[in-house]
Amino acid sequence: MTRVKICCIANEEEARLAVSLGAAAVGLVGKMPSGPGPIADDQIRLIAESVPPPIATFLLTSEQTAGEIVRHHHRTRTNTIQIVDEVSDRAYQELRSALPGVKLVQVIHVTGEESVTEACELADHVDGILLDSGNPKLAVKELGGTGRRHDWNLSRKIVGICGKPVFLAGGLNSANVGEAIETVQPFGLDVCSGVRTNGKLDPDKLEAFFDAVNRI
How far apart are the first and last CA of the chain? Predict the structure, then answer.
């Protein structure tokens, strides 16, 4: 079964709703240069503490050095870290040593064939890869939450060769998630704007999304 991560969770009520409808993971967004959903670190920690096992709690961090990523995690205490930007000096082993038992998921922003190479290189260092549609090269970085699709054929190529669980994000909704699963065959899906109305988690959209996933 394809796992579903509901991202941009704002409070404990949204977390409970997502989990009640079948979410295998919730995404909690720390400070970002742009995009939806950032909340304070103390709020992330409260939500993470409220989520029952075995649901995964993802801290989305834009920090790039191992030290800052570790400190961000210490403030939030999630069981998974989603690294949305490049890690300086590829200091993944430092992260592993400092955070034993915490899962690491590296975001790859799929922009072209070079993203396939990048995903395969970084997969050896992390527990999972998440494919999104941002652009970290802009003056104001886009590190997620764009609501845009990228080239799913490239994503399928990454799934086939990277050797790690792969989550697919970027422009997903109940109307296209079936196509996404059939095309990419990901381990999991990550959705934010596709299940929200005016920025708030929409129970009807959320239920429709899970219904579409479960039909596949």
Answer: 9
Give all strands (DSSP E) within the chain, no chain letters. 3-6, 25-29, 56-61, 80-83, 103-109, 128-132, 166-169, 188-191, 196-197, 200-201
CATH code of 22's domain: 3.20.20.70
CB neighbour class for 151 (10 Å; exposed up to 12, middle 13-18, buried from 19): middle
Give Cβ neighbours of residue 53 (< 8 Å, ≥ 6 apart).
Answer: none
pTM for this structure? 0.95
Mean pLDDT of 48-71: 97
Which letter does DSSP use for residue 96 in this model?
Answer: H
What confidence tens digit (pLDDT) does each residue in 184-214 have? Answer: 999 999 999 999 999 999 999 999 999 999 9
Element (H, E) at 118: helix 113-123
Q: Are the C-beta atoms of residues 117 and 168 closer than 8 Å to each other?
A: no
- According to DSSP, residue 135 is labeled B
Model confidence pLDDT, tens digit, residues 123-167: 999 999 999 998 888 888 888 888 899 999 999 999 999 999 999
Distance CA 163, CA 123 (A): 7
- The dihedral of CA 126, 131, 137, 143: what is its sign? negative
- Answer whether 87's CB lies under 8 Å from 69's CB: yes
* Number of structural domains in the chain: 1
